[in-house]
From TrEMBL:
Transmembrane segments: none
Protein's UniProt name: Methyltransferase domain-containing protein
Cross-referenced InterPro entries: SAM-dependent_MTases_sf (IPR029063)
One GO term (biological process): methylation
GO molecular function, one term: methyltransferase activity
């Protein structure tokens, strides 16, 4: 078992999670009802909606580190039925769960693949978009991952990143966080380092947006919701385990202390 499997694969008990979803939403859950468990990034479904507005219809999309597939289901829910959407994730139990959740929701045509984002099993020019939402943060060899992305993207394609970066006060970083129970699972870098890596691999930077302030507001609202007496049916703890409340509060502190930043970066290859 790799350290990533240990972190993400440990609590993903497929039957328990499916039973919980079916009991709470017997008619089939909507993307909004699933969001607490399948939008495992800072900013939740609103951030995903914003990200998806960058993608044209009828595209070939590869998502690296797709987790439980919330972004793909939202994409199809937003009427982009004709797209080819490949969910790729290194953690097999999450992929199994993604596939099982698909069977509970409106049918769509995403494919789900267990593979490493540092070695993509696709040919040159296979995709119009590569999307990474809080997954580059787990990847140690970012140079290799970006080389692979550049190879599989079409020359007019786009890489869209929604990622966590080191903030100016990274020394105050607290663990555990949702992507890393301990520091050696986390591979955050600074914005400057990310932009240099992208340029070294031949990418041109189209835009960079800082989403930190809205991420902090979102995280603060999640803490308020979690403290209410009536608990929601689905919570991230179902997937990430009982430490999730500490992870969530650490994310809030890390954002407030400027230990981490949230950015969206759009880049084109070659
Ligand atoms: C924080 S989760 C985010 C999941 C999903 N993008 C979301 O926002 O809900 C990070 C995901 O990246 C995946 N991941 C980590 N390292 C990876 C790698 N080398 N290749 C592919 N996926 C990876 C993990 O298994 C996990 O599902």
């Amino acid at each position: 078992m790799t350290s990533i499997d240990e972190h993400y694969g440990h609590f993903s008990h497929l039957d328990t999670i499916l039973d919980t979803i079916q009991q709470a939403y017997p008619e089939g859950p909507s993307p909004f009802q699933l969001a607490p468990i399948d939008q495992l990034h800072i900013g939740g479904i609103k951030a995903s909606d914003k990200l998806l507005k960058r993608i044209d219809k009828a595209s070939r999309i590869l998502e690296i580190g797709s987790g439980l597939g919330g972004l793909s289901r939202l994409y199809y829910h937003n009427q982009h039925k004709e797209a080819l959407y490949v969910c790729l994730d290194i953690t097999h139990p999450l992929n199994r769960l993604n596939s099982a959740i698909n069977h509970l929701t409106a049918p769509h045509s995403s494919s789900i693949l267990t593979a490493d984002g540092q070695s993509l099993p696709f040919d040159y020019d296979s995709f119009d978009y590569v999307v990474m939402q809080h997954s580059l943060l787990n990847i140690p060899d970012k140079k290799k991952a970006l080389q692979e992305i550049s190879r599989v993207l079409s020359p007019n394609g786009q890489l869209i990143l929604h990622e966590v970066l080191k903030g100016d006060d990274y020394a105050s970083m607290r663990f555990p966080v949702p992507w890393a129970s301990q520091p050696d699972h986390s591979h955050l870098i600074e914005e400057e380092a990310l932009l240099s890596l992208l340029k070294e691999q031949g990418f041109t930077i189209g835009s960079i947006e800082d989403w930190t302030q809205e991420a902090l507001l979102w995280r603060t609202r999640q803490t308020e919701k979690a403290n209410k007496v009536q608990k929601p049916a689905l919570t991230p703890a179902l997937v990430l385990g009982p430490d999730f409340s500490v992870m969530g509060s650490n994310v809030q502190k890390n954002l407030a202390d400027n230990a981490i930043r949230i950015v969206e970066v759009i880049a084109t290859p070659r």
